[in-house]
Amino acid sequence: MLVTQVTDKRDKGWQASLALQFSHTPEKTVLRSARHLGPLTVQRPFYPEDNTCHLYLLHPPGGIVGGDALEITVRLDKHSHVLLTMPGASKFYRSGGATARLTQHFHLAENATLEWLPQDAIFFPGAQARVHSVFHLRASARLLAWDLLCLGRPVLNEPFSPGCLHNRLEVWKDEQPLLIEQLRLAQGDLSPVAGRPWVGTLLFYPGTDALLDGVRERLATLGDYAGATLVDELLTVRFLSDDNLICQRAMREIWCYVRPHLTGKPPVLPRIWLT
């Protein structure tokens, strides 16, 4: 594994990047290279289920502030299988005016499998943030991904106001768009999300009608503000909620249900979730 680091001396927020490449060997998927700039890095890979690589992304500062710009690029070579998560929530703190930016690009080659399962992203009251996530898939690849946004700090009764968020999500298959959507919230107004502080999205490819039916059955605990669609083999689940525990429980249950169907492997929870 090649690991390189370059010190960033710019003073207008952290300018950080992380580039990971994974390759398949006869024994297992390995982290072939990891290049990072600034405070983004990874722990050593884990193999709790033999050939699947479990890897934790780390952001030592513990939060993202106005002026920070973080970029993550992940490439999976043919037949590789990677599960990526984080030790804790991502935190976007209150800004004095500058925007915090997070850009994430994922590239999946033929027969590659990516499980992108980050912890929730918390946008503190007054945060100014732009998040852009793009998944590039080959038709034979498999994707299991989720995204959980917390707007404000509802447990402490702190609303998102006067925060602003632009969250853009894209999924491309063989350079053709399967999904392009964006969420814009300005001045803390949560009316576009029915006033709910928790916004969740799950993506599964390739989906089937049978999987769609099974996922819909497992959305019951989220009430009326939840739904699932299947378009061009992309199974998309969306929900709004005001209860974090219900969100996390439902997301894990759905992932546990879908994973054996897409990967042929039983669900193995990342160790970090149990600590």
What's a concise summary of this model?
With 275 residues, the protein is mainly β.
Describe the structure.
- By secondary structure, the protein is mostly beta strands.
- Helix content is 11%, strand content 46%.
- It has helices at residues 209-217, 244-263, and strands at residues 2-6, 15-24, 29-37, 41-42, 53-58, 69-76, 81-85, 90-92, 100-108, 113-116, 121-123, 128-137, 142-151, 164-173, 176-185, 198-205, 226-231, 234-241.
- Strands 4, 5, 7, 8, 10, 11, 13, 16, 17 and 18 form a ten-stranded mixed sheet that branches. An eight-stranded mixed sheet has the order 1-3-2-6-9-12-14-15, with no helix packed on it.
- The longest helix has 20 residues, at 244-263.
- It starts with a strand and ends in a 12-residue tail after the last helix.
Properties at a glance:
single chain; 275 residues; mainly beta; 10-stranded mixed β-sheet; 11% helix; disordered N terminus
